Amino acid sequence: MKADLIIKNIGNLVTMRGDNKPRTKEKMRDIQILKNAYVAIKDGKFVDLGEGFNDKLVDSNTQIHDAKGLTVTPGLIDAHTHLVHGGSRENEFALKLSGVSYLDILKSGGGILSTVKATKNASFDELYEKAKKSLDIMLSYGTTTVEAKSGYGLELDTEIKQLKVAQKLNQDHPVDIVSTFLGAHAIPLEYKDNPDEYVDEVINMLPKIKELKLAEFCDVFCEDNVFSVEQTRRILNEAKKLGFKIKIHADEIVSLGGAELSAQLGAISADHLMAASEKGMEDMAKNNVIANILPGTSFNLMKNYANARKMIDLGVAVSLSTDYNPGSCPTENIQLIMQLGSLGLKMTPSEVLTAVTINAAFAIDKADEVGSIEVGKKADLVIFDAPNIDYIMYHFGINHVYRVYKEGKLVV
Ligand code: NIG
Ligand code: FE
């Protein structure tokens, strides 16, 4: 067998190879870094890797690229985004700075509800072009796989429009997209006085989304004055019956018990968790729920950071994602999130890299395909213009990407 491409002269090769399960505790820290290494790629997959070089894989058709002694990691995975939406919300920026809270802006009909209007009014092509621009930015920072949620329609047609945009981008764009149905993202104003009716509506949308194969996951924004724990449980139990995998926006602002619920329901991940209780974290550890922490949201809402250190101590597998959305976290930049992972959450650079590669792959149930550099997986990788991994977190606020490869193709 000969390789299509060999990337040689990799100063530090962060493989993330290891057990085929989410990494916890010291497994998040003890990561394998090969020195002066190479990777070999054929048909878009890794076929070999190691220290030094492997002549046996080379023939006249093999391309050889030089990584110049730099640092290589698996393609980064952003396991929580609200990629497809209309408009932007800089009109709320001054309000936020003057101290009006995120939930108060939502209560008065702004926030998510204002993006719902903009998304309803946008055409398919407008949503596609805007989301494509964001995907290009994500890729330029090293993100090669993205989870994308609906949730700015709050009625079937617009939810479907959003999910179809994500589906088409998944076909057209190098970045892979995994879709999540988030019909339960806010209570529409017309249901303000009888939110349970909207819960019924969401439950009614589920079979159609399933039939059209538009989402693998179902998610709910479980929050004070949004969806209660009981409403979340109802929706997600129905989703499970139809074969959706489960995620929860849990304990973001108020400690409602979303973390506990994620453990009871067997969610793949609970996300946010800034207000999660210790009991909730323990339950998550026992039931193997991944904590997908979104420190960009803490930063941008000017609120506290989730207690990642405690979660790691308790044995919870932690992943990190952007939460890219027009309200609580308008950034596509996963490297900023990694830097906040260290500077805000106090995670070490090895923990951070684990969190945006293999653990993020588990958070979207794609760890059999992506998340590590190992034989048989998609050849997604990033060459960072950095002498070691600490440097990526230390020198913050800039883009360290030198090259990005997606399924063996140079894309940045
Ligand atoms: O994850 N918290 C709920 N949903 C998003 C924000 C969406 C928005 O504000 O438009 C989040 O923070
Ligand atoms: Fe979110």
TrEMBL record:
Enzyme Commission number(s) from the entry: 3.5.2.7
Chain residues that bind Zn(2+): 80, 82, 249, 323
Protein name, per record: Imidazolonepropionase
SUPFAM superfamilies: Composite domain of metallo-dependent hydrolases (SSF51338), Metallo-dependent hydrolases (SSF51556)
Residues covered by the Amidohydrolase-related domain: 71-411
One term of GO molecular function: iron ion binding
Residue sites binding N-formimidoyl-L-glutamate per the record: 152, 325, 327
Co-factor remark: Binds 1 zinc or iron ion per subunit.
Gene3D superfamilies: Metal-dependent hydrolases, Urease, subunit C, domain 1
Stated family: Belongs to the metallo-dependent hydrolases superfamily. HutI family.
Enzyme class, UniProt record, top EC level: hydrolase
Keywords attached to this entry: Cytoplasm, Histidine metabolism, Hydrolase, Iron, Metal-binding, Zinc
Residues annotated as binding 4-imidazolone-5-propanoate: 89, 152, 185, 252, 328
Gene Ontology CC: cytoplasm
InterPro entries (UniProt xref): Amidohydro-rel, HutI, Metal-dep_hydrolase_composite, Metal_Hydrolase
Pathways per UniProt: Amino-acid degradation; L-histidine degradation into L-glutamate; N-formimidoyl-L-glutamate from L-histidine: step 3/3
Source species of the chain: Alkalithermobacter thermoalcaliphilus JW-YL-7 = DSM 7308
Binding-site positions, Fe(3+): 80, 82, 249, 323
Function, in words: Catalyzes the hydrolytic cleavage of the carbon-nitrogen bond in imidazolone-5-propanoate to yield N-formimidoyl-L-glutamate. It is the third step in the universal histidine degradation pathway.
CDD domains on file: Imidazolone-5PH
